[in-house]
Amino acid sequence: MKALIQRVSSASVSIGGDCVAEIKTGLLVLLGVSESDTPREVFWMVSKVANLRVFNDAEGKMNLRLADTGGDVLLVSQFTLYGDARKGNRPSFVQAARPENAKPLYEMFLSELQKTLNKSIPTGVFGADMQVSLINDGPVTIMIESP
Fold this sequence. Notes:
- By secondary structure, the protein is of the alpha+beta class.
- The protein is built from 3 helices and 7 strands, in the order βββαββαβαβ.
- About 35% of the residues are buried.
């Protein structure tokens, strides 16, 4: 499982020109699921995302978690995080989970993160052609990959 996490001052997802989800300050989480992922990776990743200290404290150091700031999360499925372009110029997505395997783990991640943060999390639409807009704050962008 991979998560590309961006600290944002705002982020939104649109489909066909209609905004389907948006947040102000918080984290945009682009989540990719691999064929080898299981619920174990979901729980590990939820803990990492929830406890990631990427928000500035009073001294300007990245010491605060999302829960410390009251920020929000926007979750977007993104199988292309598993694109492998080491050979040739066209990425291969063979490591990405098929939708029938990825969607239940994506939904489990969403559910567990909502429980952990005790808040509702807006999302994109799994498998849809989405336009994601964001203002990356910092910029701060972190890639996390499960062991």
